[in-house]
Design brief:
Length: 645
């Protein structure tokens, strides 16, 4: 996903996901209709973990083909999800089932004799650290930390904000929260104070857990000043801030009334057991943007702060009893474009996830993937990509360079798992047509409709929607705002979940995602408008060979502004970095005489985006002054290069 998409979607509000957040979701029976009265949730009998894998594989890989599984999930969701729920250990069964995510992800593996198996491989080129952490060690850390949280007043139902880099302690905190039924909200380290304060005010955490420093190539991220500033800006204050001081770096703290030190707290902590919570108990809030055989190592090269980080780095692999790689580094520069190959080769990764942007970054620096050639990838079977459209050139390059099928699939923060994919375990082809994000995953009845809610013909662009009910694991609400949740996603097309993505299906049911169909507000626009010299501004996506899109601000300056363009641009870039954070990826500004507006004052975003990307654009009859487009075109010709030039 382009970072711009993440930022802009943040303003939609907080997303809430239920306990069933793992990749392949197998939880409680499905709700039949979210709005018109929920059917009571019914749970299937508990089956001990020792038989779970056999059951699961028999049920899903041998018994069903993809077509059978999809059909059953669509036509008889209760039967389908009852069977799937056998993969979970339930504390209480039947109606009102109870379970605990941390127990399912950690404790049951230890109880079943797999305590010495690697749970997490922490690989951090930025600090020169490599560490293997077993399931027993994860259990010890999560249970002691749960004791610390409880000692400081965190109860089931409270919320804990986690603002940490990619260190194992971030995962321990997620699991410790799940252990005691506290909801966690992990905030990506690339966001700055203002964005952090907005989330603190919204989520109202009882406790905030952070770290002393993050390590980015070439600079340190100082979390403490960022937290201090955020707390100054927010009206809600957490009771305490727990600080993990990273080894071999200076020790930091906050005001003594607020500050708790991780090491000191853990030294005296009493382990806490897993509490039993209802299956629909909220596990996390996230803003928008084998039994005896060798366990498979899985690596999701993302960040815990994204939805794929939650499901693919932490909960999904641990639920399956796999080993997950936690990588604190980049695809390039840590130290070179061979980094992904090195990690996969060294840890024997069987499957990997990453975003197309990361592949483009490697390709740009090392077009022949020379750095990777020294690392044999004998155990790698599949590479999965998602988060943004994967262009065919990048897909083909990745296939050649990694030597395995590259499978695009489609996610949303709201879904908590993939909506379309190539379900390899259900026998789907590992060579789907280029450009597709796969077929609908069983449980997601995806269809493409026009604005009048008529299903469109194959290969006709339309609104991608999902027929209700949604499967377990999908978001249940916007955080404490059920009304807005209903309004945003379920009102425009009654009976469907509106994904707000546009695309088409082909004759065989493969889905192609083309673009987001919603027009969302862009937070960078707000930050630029704060500048005293700017009277009007809009930010659009400029196509970029590496990142897909980068933000471009079109600004109208005050008539009396005397400052140089360079100074103004530097000030605006600083303002966005201070408010949103470096992840805003904001660096480009052009100054124009005016912005096009409709008579009702709206900016025609899609025309403007086409214009800046040198594509044909439409001037609708409602535009007040069509000449404005010509002026912008002239400015862009002088300042912004056409792609490829
Ligand atoms: N803490 C602080 N700053 C961070 C950060 C973090 N955790 N992560 C990124 N940043 C900073 C970077 O240092 C950079 O700052 P700079 O402008 O001073 O150089 C800025 O944010 C922009 O970062 P980004 O555009 O992400 O570039 P990158 O080189 O840090 O990372 C990728 C490149 C490809 C690794 C990264 O973009 C990525 O992992 N993308 C895929 C995300 C994903 O999994 N998406 C699917 C989500 S559903
Ligand atoms: P987020 O909720 O921030 O993770 O962003 C989800 C959005 O990213 C989706 O609505 C799509 O617009 C986009 N997206 C995710 N995966 C893909 C994909 N495989 N192809 C195209 N777009 C994608």
């Amino acid at each position: 996903k382009t970072v711009s998409a993440v930022g802009s979607r943040c303003l939609l509000g907080l997303k809430l996901s239920c306990t069933g957040v793992s990749g392949p979701c197998y939880l409680q029976k499905v709700k039949t209709n979210i709005w018109n009265g929920c059917k009571p949730l019914v749970y299937t009998p508990n089956i001990a973990f020792s038989t779970y894998r056999k059951q699961f594989i028999r049920a899903f890989s041998l018994k069903y083909t993809y077509e059978d599984a999809f059909g059953l999930a669509r036509d008889n969701p209760e039967e389908f999800w009852s069977e799937a729920a056998e993969g979970i250990t339930w504390f209480e069964q039947f109606v009102g089932g109870k379970m605990n995510m941390c127990y399912n992800a950690v404790d049951r593996h230890v109880e079943n004799g797999r305590g010495d198996q690697a749970a997490v491989i922490y690989d951090s080129p930025v600090t020169g650290t490599k560490q293997v952490i077993t399931y027993r060690e994860v259990q010890e850390q999560a249970s002691r930390l749960a004791g610390v949280l409880v000692r400081h007043g965190v109860k089931t139902g409270d919320l804990v904000v986690i603002y940490m880099p990619m260190v194992p302690q971030a995962m321990f905190t997620m699991l410790a929260c799940a252990r005691i039924g506290a909801t966690h909200s992990l905030i990506f380290g690339g966001f700055a104070s203002k964005e952090l304060s907005v989330r603190i005010d919204h989520a109202k955490p009882k406790l905030l857990v952070t770290a002393s420093f993050g390590v980015e190539p070439g600079r340190r991220v100082e979390y403490i000043p960022l937290v201090e500033k955020a707390l100054e800006l927010s009206s809600h204050k957490p009771h305490k801030v727990l600080i993990y001081n990273r080894p071999s770096m200076e020790k930091v703290s906050l005001h003594p009334d607020l500050s708790l030190d991780w090491e000191e707290e853990m030294a005296t902590a009493r382990p806490h057991n897993c509490v039993s919570v209802p299956a629909h108990h909220p596990l996390y809030v996230l803003y928008t943007s084998g039994t005896t055989g060798t366990p498979k190592v899985w690596w999701a090269a993302s960040d815990l702060g994204w939805v794929v980080g939650h499901s693919y780095i932490c909960y999904g692999p641990l639920l399956h009893g796999n080993t997950t790689v936690l990588y604190e580094g980049k695809p390039v520069g840590t130290p070179d474009p061979g980094a992904f190959f090195r990690v996969m080769s060294e840890h024997g990764t069987a499957s990997m996830f990453t975003a197309p942007t990361a592949i483009r970054a490697i390709r740009q620096q090392d077009p022949q993937a020379e750095h990777g050639k020294q690392y044999p990838l004998s155990r790698l079977r599949n590479l999965f990509v998602a988060g943004e459209r994967c262009d065919i050139e990048t897909l083909e390059w990745a296939k050649r360079s990694f030597g395995v099928p590259v499978l695009d699939h489609w996610w949303q923060t709201e879904s908590g798992s993939s909506i379309t994919a190539s379900c390899v375990g259900l026998g789907c082809s590992r060579t789907p047509p280029a450009g597709t994000a796969g077929k609908a995953v069983p449980g997601y009845n995806v269809t493409v409709i026009d604005d009048e809610m008529q299903q469109v013909k194959p290969r006709t662009l339309g609104n991608i929607v999902v027929k209700l009910p949604l499967p377990p694991g999908a978001a249940l609400s916007l955080w404490q705002n059920q009304t807005l949740f209903k309004e945003l996603y379920f009102t425009k097309f009654p009976g469907y979940y509106d994904t707000m993505d546009a695309g088409f299906v082909d004759e065989e049911g493969f889905l192609y995602i083309m673009s987001r169909s919603d027009v969302h507000r862009c937070p960078r626009r707000g930050s630029v408008l704060l500048h005293s010299a700017v009277v009007d501004c809009d930010v659009v996506g400029l196509e970029d060979p590496l990142k897909g899109h980068v933000p471009l601000a079109l600004c109208v300056l005050r008539n009396d502004c005397q400052r140089s363009a360079d100074v103004l641009v530097n000030e605006m870039v600083k303002s966005v970095r201070d408010t949103i954070g470096p992840v805003g990826a904001f660096k480009k500004v052009v100054f124009v005489k005016a912005l096009p507006k409709t008579r009702s004052g709206k900016i025609p975003r899609s025309s403007l985006a086409n214009l800046v990307n040198h594509k044909p654009y439409e001037i609708s009859p409602t535009i007040e002054d069509p000449e404005v487009f010509k002026d912008i075109e002239k400015v862009l010709r002088e300042t912004v290069k056409e792609p490829g030039k």
